[in-house]
């Protein structure tokens, strides 16, 4: 009887551990990239995504890579992972005021987050990122929002404060992003840690310029390696502080609306 109870308890604990481990989609390993044409396109997409500066430089206007926001090469839950997005397109986007394809969503990332030019839908870069996202989404149901997709839900208990946010920035962010918020570069001139504002950061049309979107990203992912260590209010505060710093204009708007629009 004791052995039976022990066995059942062990099975329950094992099942709970498996349930916790499988809470989020687990994309295939890079070692599982197939050979042949499809595999080469997937690998190119992975390189474009993780080293956009080198593999898609003709479309980039700042110092960022796609993986600066979509962490761990687009794999990490609650950092807008590719596997959480691919199967949900086409979808209506209020930003575009119409239904867009996954390829068109990639175009917007280049235009706003990369502050560059949108590649054509038949470009090798768009095809490669699409193939990579499709591969990461292996066995993901179409049209289903998975746990860990997009960003985590956050809700401040008081109105965001840039003054409080500056304190959070000084205490939590400068070690990686620098006291001026302009990032830290490697010896080769590429950014080890990306700029949070300034000419080499995302422009005012990027989703990360929106305080709620920024706060949701920060809450789950920042400081790097210490996600969920800030309160919701702290995440909103530091993003309100970021929001007020200078950065490239939104290409949709006039100079004056960018200058005075905040």
Automatic annotation (TrEMBL):
GO MF annotations in UniProt: electron transfer activity; heme binding; metal ion binding
UniProt keyword annotations, A-Z: Heme, Iron, Metal-binding, Signal
Source organism superkingdom: Bacteria
Pfam families, per database record: Cytochrom_C, SoxA-TsdA_cyt-c
Gene3D superfamilies: Cytochrome c-like domain
Annotated ranges, domain Cytochrome c: 40-137, 160-246
InterPro entries in alphabetical order: Cyt_c-like_dom, Cyt_c-like_dom_sf, Cytochrome_c-type_DH
Signal peptide: 1-19
PROSITE patterns attached to this UniProt entry: CYTC
Protein name (database record): Cytochrome c
Natural source organism: Thiorhodovibrio frisius
